[in-house]
Specification:
Radius of gyration: 21 Å
Helix content: under 10%
Number of helices: 2
CATH class: Mainly Beta
Order of helices and strands: HEEEEEEEHEEEEEEEEEEE
Number of domains: 1
CATH topology: Porin
Shape: globular
Length: 413
Amino acid sequence: MRLAESAAAPVMEPHVMINARLFAFALAAPVMALAPAASAQDVWDDPGGIESEASVEIALVAAPDADEAVLGLAKARMAINYVLMNGAEIGAVGGVELQRNHPARAGFSGVFPPAAGAGASSGGAFSGLARGDTPADRDLRISLETAYIYIEGGYGEARLGADEGIATRFFEGGPALFAHSGLVNPALDPTGQIIARTDHDLTGPAAKISYATPRILGLRGGVSYTPTADRRGVDRDTESAFPGASRPEIEDAFEVALNLSRRLPQSGVRLRAAAAYSQAEARFAPDPSLYGTVETWSAGASAEFSRLRLGGSYLESNNGIAAGPGDYSAWAVSAALPFGKFEAVAEVSGAEDEFAGLSSDSWQIGLVWKPSAGWRLASGWRDVDTAYLNSGAQVPATGGSRNGIVIEITRSF
């Protein structure tokens, strides 16, 4: 398996385009959230006084057989809140992340070299994957990933600011061997070849407004609206232009999602599931007819038994392509066997992007060890096989199979 060096680029503050729908949503969501506490939601904070919470997480990823053997990230989060006399909670949350990822896959998006005579593409509106002669090459990056205010009460929670969309917040999937460098939804990609994403992150950390209901009988719903997805997030970059090619702009993004979490009373089995749908407009100045409405849906579920955890996730998107084939799909299935402070994990995943002409099938197996609170160590063997669709010509050297050992160390405090 090959591992490339990471990339980074400064993050620009979001430019928010207010319209009538956003204004109406902004007025309605806080009113619902501020309502007196309902019996379906417990309020554990005492009224009065300001509470604060801070956390830091550092991760190091090593792949000894790779060209670039070390990747890493560091993230910090700060939250403050105040509880009103009626039990409603108001607060603010901020988070920053520093990341060294594969230089050609900053924020998951990237350019893959075309096969001979295949030409170049501008990239899918959802996947962010493109084909071209010049791959991206970005250094160490830092980003303000989270900066929002919230109101939470008996009728749910409303958020306003830079944050994940509701589809990503409600995501469910199977157990993961690696916390940050997995086969699906990776923040750090040792191979630079993983193209599977099922967490339904359409807009990244762009400014948005969202509302989530309280959880009743294990079920929770939510909706979010993003005027413009214009942030260069370290995990999801929707803004940076590809070398030699423009990228479509994502505007007027709506997301709806459901999340279920229930423990069966007799067996004690924990069940989790989620489903989400999003819609946005993709605009591309060089060719306005190429892109249209981006529609994406996803689903995921997991089951946790006393000696077994298993689950999976699936996503499908039209990638916003209005002219010709361009669908993107991804899936992942995994299982874990816990024993003491260890856990054995096996995963398989796959993805296909018709517009970029890429497909990928991957698997990995390994062990997770949690020796004490705040420490997580994982190691395993990985195989990633990337192929190029509809091309009888010579396959670029960047394609093919990559395999080898991956090690990830995570420290949280």
